[in-house]
């Protein structure tokens, strides 16, 4: 079907397709995460990740079970465009590892790359304790 609609079967495995896959995965992760803070039903699933009093590596792995019911749908555009499933899987793994490493208090900055990439220090602010009023307004209550 992709061949009929887009004129090609696959984007292939070229080095530049890997870069596009990693950028595409990060873009998708960003919007999934942002909307998980803005849309009530998504926040209900995501709040488990933010509900700990501590900021450490275990928080990087902490997700509600409901997230697994819908999260994969966000990435369907990638195979639809022709990214190889194995490439998407590896991009997801790289992103998950990077996101996991953001959940530490032992590293605050990455130096110069910190002007472009999220650092543990910046992500710690994202996880800072919040008041009930702030939660209600950002979650759309």
Topology:
Layout: H1 2-6, H2 15-38, H3 40-50, H4 57-61, H5 67-70, H6 77-81, H7 85-101, H8 120-126, H9 132-138
Task: Provide an overview of this structure.
The chain has nine helices and no strands. The protein is mainly α and 141 residues long. It has one domain (2-138). The radius of gyration is 17 Å and the shape is globular. It has helices spanning 2-6, 15-38, 40-50, 57-61, 67-70, 77-81, 85-101, 120-126, 132-138. Helix content is 60%, strand content 0%.
Quick overview:
This protein is mainly alpha-helical and about 140 residues long.
Poorly predicted runs: 131-141
Kindly, what is the distance between the CA atoms of the first and last residues, rounded to a whole number of angstroms?
42 Å
- As for the number of domains, it is 1
**What is the count of β-strands?**
0
**In one word, what is the shape?**
globular
- Structural class designation: mainly alpha
Helix residue percentage: 55-70%
For this entry, give a set of tags.
mainly alpha, disordered C terminus, single chain, 60% helix, 141 residues, 9 helices, 0% strand
């Amino acid at each position: 079907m992709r061949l009929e609609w887009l004129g090609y079967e696959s984007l292939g495995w070229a080095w530049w397709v890997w870069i596009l896959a990693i950028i595409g995965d990060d873009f998708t992760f960003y919007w999934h995460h942002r909307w998980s803070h803005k849309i009530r039903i998504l926040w209900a699933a995501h709040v488990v990740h933010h509900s700990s009093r501590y900021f450490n590596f275990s928080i990087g792995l902490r997700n509600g079970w409901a997230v697994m019911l819908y999260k994969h749908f966000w990435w369907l555009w990638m195979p639809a465009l022709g990214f190889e499933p194995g490439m998407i899987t590896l991009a997801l793994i790289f992103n998950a590892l990077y996101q996991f490493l953001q959940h530490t208090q032992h590293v605050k900055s990455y130096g110069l790359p910190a002007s472009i990439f999220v650092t543990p220090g910046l992500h710690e602010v994202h996880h800072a304790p919040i008041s009930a009023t702030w939660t209600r307004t950002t979650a759309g209550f």
